[in-house]
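User: Sequence in, structure out. Go.
Assistant: Echoing your sequence, followed by the structure tokens.
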Amino acid sequence: MEMDDLVKTAKSLADSTRVRIVAALLERELCVCELCDSLGVTQSTLSTHLQVIRDAGLVSARKEGKWMYYAIQPG
């Protein structure tokens, strides 16, 4: 892992909400509504945090119909 990647990963986990998102996704793939409900955050807040951890390469997303599902990125 390059130093820049390591810094990006560390920064992405520097927020407790993002750590909670990653912890929830370690259990299983979840859709946005499930994450909102389990974490008690709005969809807007969740979307902002998911973008940060997606940019760091920690989670992947897939669309199924009108739902977005997130999972831990393998590797």
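User: And one key feature?
Assistant: The radius of gyration is 12 Å.
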